[in-house]
Write a structure and sequence with these properties.
The structure holds 2 protein chains of 2 kinds. Chain A contains 7 helices and 13 strands. Chain A is of the alpha/beta class. Chain B contains 12 helices and no strands. The chains are: A alpha/beta, B mainly alpha.
Chain lengths: ~280, ~270
């Protein structure tokens, strides 16, 4: 199942038709995704839509039950998990946190902390940091590994709006400086930075994908995120082939209902292509 | 130097305290106090089985404690019961099984109190060699495992993603715990082993700024507790194992006191 990609210029990670199952239920299915050097890919979707599952499968924490995951050989990964609480009993300064999985030099640590703007907190205990400071410290820790691929699971949680903007700006600068690929997870496209190259909208499967502008304009995005998302949109005509029911099942255009939605399940005449197709009226937003 | 029973007790106790410091820190950081207790309680089942099959006592305890930790990991993965309930079941049923089996074996005379509360004053030169030999192995492996174990303690998935193989280090850590229990049983007894792991580590927390500092301090505080407990037991004619734990408790309480007055103080 697991192969490595070793040709230069190839994607860092490539997922093809990946599905992950837990206790008999598919968390995600039919996910195709690739991340290249210098590329920022953002996964969005509501809670429980499989964003974290997809990211964890991409970096090898979870094993897929179907499909393949290819990683470039010797891929160095820097990971900022969604939930990270450090027990008070563990004495850990920001400086010590930097050396958690690697052995960076003192100057590398200072540089990373400087870049993320928490150099003054090097000697502080991590439990004493504010939400924003902690996220920056975690970002510095992932960065100091000089990763080829940086994976950030909801990096702006617990950060106020101006802090969010600053953090996204920081993430973009890291990409510009190091040339690493970035996989970003967010639950809201509105705060996803404009620098994202590809947005993948998940809801148990890939609902739509494209540039941020394209995704915001897609009816699938509209349905997932509801009225608030709709406010930002003009009426948009689009052809779509399935509807997510309230109980999580999927109503297809051919009238059938399935437990989940999968490009290869035979209910889709075009597998989730949300390109511009203005021939059909948009219903049920 | 090792001629008197008291000096043998001191040497064995110091060796054990030095060994368990770093392990105790991980038990505290990973919130595994009850887990350690469960493994320790299963030691009595190990003792009973060792008598039954006429194998070395320490080997029996090591095997049973390892098996219990593996059983717990497997049951946890099935996820039918909470870890807390599983620990409660395993902890007391292995202890009870051990007691029942020992009672059945009328042909062996077992000093039950010695196993439950330790008999440090009866340690032999062989025991001392085991404490220091086993201690060297444990500390060596802990040094080797330190980075992955610490990374997994902070976040299991982060350790996995960044290539630190958390499963392997957790497995080796379990084996080390089983080994410590096998070695420590004779000194502080089955019921008090975890306290020697946890109390010095908890005491060291208030004086440490890095995990490594806390591990070393926990060992040193353990040594002080052993010295205080043994001399106290000599002076007041109290049982030695419990006296060591009481001495550790006194140090812990003192650390609470000094903490409120000098937040960043060093150990006196």
């Amino acid at each position: 199942m697991l192969k490595t990609i070793d040709r230069a210029g190839e994607p860092l990670v490539r997922l093809s038709g990946v599905g992950v199952q837990r206790t008999g239920r598919w968390l995600v299915r039919g996910v195709d995704m690739e991340i290249r050097p210098r590329e920022i890919v953002t996964l969005i979707g509501p809670n429980g839509s499989g964003k974290s599952t997809t990211a964890k499968t991409a970096i090898g924490i979870l094993k897929p039950q179907e499909g393949t995951v290819l990683r470039r050989s010797g891929l160095q990964i820097g990971y900022v998990p969604q939930k990270l609480s450090i027990d008070w009993t563990l004495p850990l300064t920001v400086e010590r946190l930097m050396k958690l999985t690697g052995t960076p030099s003192a100057s590398e640590i200072a540089e990373a902390l400087e870049a993320t703007g928490v150099a003054h907190l090097a000697k502080a205990e991590v439990q004493a940091l504010s939400g924003g400071e902690f996220q920056r410290a975690l970002l510095a820790r992932a960065m100091v590994r000089k990763p080829d691929l940086l994976v950030l699971d909801e990096p702006v949680q617990g950060v106020d709006f101006s802090g969010e903007v600053a953090l996204y700006e920081l993430i973009r600068r890291i990409r510009d400086r190091t040339g690493c690929g970035i996989l970003l997870i967010s639950h809201d496209l509105h705060v996803v930075m404009a620098d994202t190259d590809t947005v993948i909208c998940l809801n148990g499967h890939v609902c739509c994908r494209g540039t941020p502008q394209n995704v915001v304009a897609s009816p699938e995005y509209l349905k997932l995120f509801g009225a608030r998302a709709a406010e930002t949109l003009a009426i948009y005509r689009h052809r779509h082939d399935h509807t997510h029911l309230a109980d999580g099942r999927v109503l297809h255009q051919d009238g059938s209902v399935t437990d989940n939605c999968h490009p290869a399940d035979g209910h889709h005449d075009r597998a989730h292509d949300h390109g511009h197709d203005h021939s059909h009226g948009h219903t049920n937003a | 130097m090792l001629d008197g029973f008291f000096s043998r007790a001191l040497v064995a106790g110091i060796g054990l305290a030095l060994t368990v410091g770093p392990l105790g820190c991980f038990i505290v950081w990973r919130r595994m106090a009850y887990f350690g207790d469960t493994m320790a309680h299963s030691a009595l089942l190990g003792v009973a089985l060792a008598f039954l099959f006429q194998i070395n006592l320490m080997a029996g305890v090591f095997l049973v404690a390892s098996l219990v930790s593996v059983a717990l990991l497997l049951l946890q993965r099935r996820g039918a019961l909470s870890t807390d309930a599983l620990l409660g079941i395993l902890s007391h049923s292995t202890l009870a099984l051990g007691l029942v089996m020992v009672a059945f074996m009328s042909w062996v005379r077992v000093d039950l109190m010695g196993f439950l509360f330790g008999d440090i004053l009866a340690v032999s030169r062989t025991d001392i060699a085991l404490v220091y030999g086993g201690g060297a192995i444990i500390l060596g492996l802990m040094a080797w495992l330190w980075k992955p174990l610490l990374a997994a303690t902070v976040n299991e998935e982060l350790a996995e993603a960044e290539g630190m193989a958390p499963e392997r280090s957790r497995f080796v850590f379990m084996l080390l715990m089983a080994l410590v229990i096998a070695i420590a049983m004779k000194i502080v007894g089955i019921l008090l082993i975890t306290s020697l792991l946890i109390i010095p580590a908890a005491t060291a927390r208030r004086f440490s700024t890095t995990p490594e500092q806390m591990a070393v301090l926990a060992s040193l505080i353990g040594v002080v507790a052993v010295l205080g407990g043994l001399y106290g037991s000599l002076h007041f004619d109290t049982p030695s194992g419990p006296s060591i734990v009481v001495a550790a408790l006194v140090l812990f309480l003192l650390s609470l006191f000094s903490f409120t007055r000098r937040p960043a103080g060093a150990l006196q």
